[in-house]
């Protein structure tokens, strides 16, 4: 009960300390030259204001562009969660679910896409994008066959357009013909 916190372990307090400690991973365990993100996206505890919760479910997202950095971050999450829990006479159980690998394009495949797209649409329509911390299922495919390349077709970079996974996103239907032409061009190039 909330009136006698000295008689129990407050799992919500433990989760708060874990959340704060996790924020040190990127700034203290990862070089500033390697991007990494640790996000605590969900903390689920009780519903009553006068009850001290004995369990909390935390859900995190980890994003990196380097597999070694990813492994370091995951290990530090484990170490911090266990140590913080122990400091409150609690325990932490960690489950790694649906960890997408780092997406790495094959340089030769990347060059092929660039050449075909440039021949179809002109150099002004083909560009490089900065690395993005989102995850992508295509990374699993590249793990099994690394001779591939993830690319986008430019569904709109106007200031008033929202990114995907945003409720305001509106797909640019006009890009479908260019996308189909690019896939046809890539197929022709590959079959030569």
Automatic annotation (TrEMBL):
This is Amidohydrolase. GO terms for biological process: diaminopimelate biosynthetic process. GO terms for molecular function: N-acetyldiaminopimelate deacetylase activity. InterPro entries: Amidohydrolase, Bact_exopeptidase_dim_dom, Peptidase_M20. It comes from the Bacteria. It comes from Raoultella planticola. The lineage of its organism: Bacteria, Pseudomonadati, Pseudomonadota, Gammaproteobacteria, Enterobacterales. The keyword Ribosomal protein does not apply. PANTHER family: METALLOPEPTIDASE, PUTATIVE (AFU_ORTHOLOGUE AFUA_6G09600)-RELATED, PEPTIDASE M20 FAMILY MEMBER. It holds the Pfam family Peptidase_M20. Gene3D superfamilies: 3.30.70.360, Zn peptidases. Keywords: Hydrolase.
């Amino acid at each position: 009960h909330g009136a006698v916190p000295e008689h129990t372990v407050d799992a919500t307090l433990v989760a708060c300390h874990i959340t704060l400690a996790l924020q040190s991973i990127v700034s203290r365990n990862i070089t500033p030259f390697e991007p990494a993100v640790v996000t605590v996206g969900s903390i689920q505890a009780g519903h009553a204001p006068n009850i001290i919760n004995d369990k909390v479910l935390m859900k995190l997202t980890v994003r990196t562009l380097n597999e070694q950095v990813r492994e370091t971050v995951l290990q530090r999450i484990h170490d911090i969660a266990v140590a913080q829990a122990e400091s409150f006479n609690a325990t932490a159980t960690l489950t790694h679910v649906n960890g997408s690998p780092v997406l790495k394009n094959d340089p030769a495949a990347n060059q092929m896409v660039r050449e075909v797209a440039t021949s179809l649409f002109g150099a002004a329509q083909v560009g490089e994008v900065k690395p993005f911390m989102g995850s992508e299922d295509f990374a699993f495919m590249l793990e099994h066959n690394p001779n591939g390349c993830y690319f986008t077709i430019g569904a709109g970079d106007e200031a008033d357009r929202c990114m995907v996974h945003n409720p305001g996103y509106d797909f640019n239907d006009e890009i479908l013909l260019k996308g189909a032409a690019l896939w046809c061009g890539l197929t022709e190039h590959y079959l030569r």
